[in-house]
Amino acid sequence: MQTSLLLMALYLSLPGGTQAFKPLISGGGSVTHRDITQRAVLRKTAEFCRALAAAQGQDFSLPIGDSLSIVKLQKACSADSSSSTLVSTILFQSAIVKMYLSNALVDMEFALSKAHHFDGETFQGGRALITAGVSEVKASVKRGRFLLARLALGCVCHTLQDFYSHSNWVEMGNRQPYSTLIRPDLQLVNLAGPSTPTCRNCMGGNCTDNILPEVLQQGLLTSGYFNLFSSNKPAGKCSHGGLFDWTSGRDPVGSINKDDVGSSHGHLHHTAADVAINATIELLEDIRGAAVDKDFLRLIGITQSAVLCFVIDTTGSMSDDITEAKRVSFSIIDSKRGAQQEPSLYILVPFNDPGGC
Ligand SMILES: *[C@@H]1O[C@H](CO)[C@@H](O)[C@H](O)[C@H]1NC(C)=O
Ligand SMILES: *[C@@H]1O[C@H](CO)[C@@H](O)[C@H](O)[C@H]1NC(C)=O
């Protein structure tokens, strides 16, 4: 398990080995899908805990920004800060890790799916994946399937975040999220048509101004084409770019992605990443609005009160004692039910004698 995660991390960190914001690791001060996801979750969680505290007339003094840490935030979100334990912190951390690993996996599992990355002007397809994914997250939360919900959320976040790196949204001067992407009731508008040219050649390798001025003036949405195997792309269209994209060598030469600071539109990398963070926060807010408070906290991995952990020896020779341990455990659980400091989570850890050698 650990080896395969490590291998995946190595694979995903190969320079140019992927076609998106770098999934987990990047150099040169670039922002990854992991950073974007974690920053958005921490900020949304902090805002939510601040609102809960205000409703209960309690203080929430933690400043909300990109310097939030998992440990401090878990502590600030606990109803009783003395009950903030290592276990709670690990549960929060592991919920976030599940979200960003499932986000990163989209680059492996769906490397060649245009819709998953908003490549090649696949705006309807990308938006359909997002709205279907959000429904899945909400349905899983309602059924109490929090792990499934986190994994689905990670996938949705990947596609949503890619929009800001792969389209010309920020080149058009937009600094707000494109809310239509998460709103099935709205229509996508101003998409550049299939035969509308959108790019021109870069000037001596400088791609700063390669999107056609009339496309930007008319506010037409476009994104870069990407092909691993051939240089074919529709006439006049922009390319995604990067080491593996063959289309960017063909007229119009050059590309428009903002995946890292070294990309052809790397001068807008940080802008795109900032808007992607805010778009992810908007998505989390939408999910929060559809869930009861307690379930939203479970989804993001926050335990507000103590976690009660039973560790029971289940070795066969212990059967009499197991019966007694069960009885005592149930009576502890019953005594906590409805109590003011009711644990937010119960964990059962069975252990037994290892097999002989
Ligand atoms: C690229 O062109 C833009 C203007 O089109 C200019 O502002 C920028 O300095 C150029 N970048 C480099 C590295 O020459
Ligand atoms: C993202 O949202 C924050 C908080 O609302 C705001 O201060 C910031 O300017 C936004 N970022 C961008 C790029 O608009």
TrEMBL record:
InterPro entries, alphabetized: HMCN1-like_VWA, VWA7, VWA7_N
Localization per record: Secreted
Main location (coarse class): secreted
Every Hemicentin-1-like von Willebrand factor A domain range: 308-355
Signal peptide extent: 1-20
Tagged with keyword Signal: yes
Domain VWA7 N-terminal, chain residue ranges per copy: 72-297
Annotated keywords: Secreted, Signal
Pfam families: VWA7_N (PF25107), VWA_4 (PF25106)
The keyword Cell inner membrane is assigned to this record: no
Name of the protein in question: von Willebrand factor A domain-containing protein 7-like
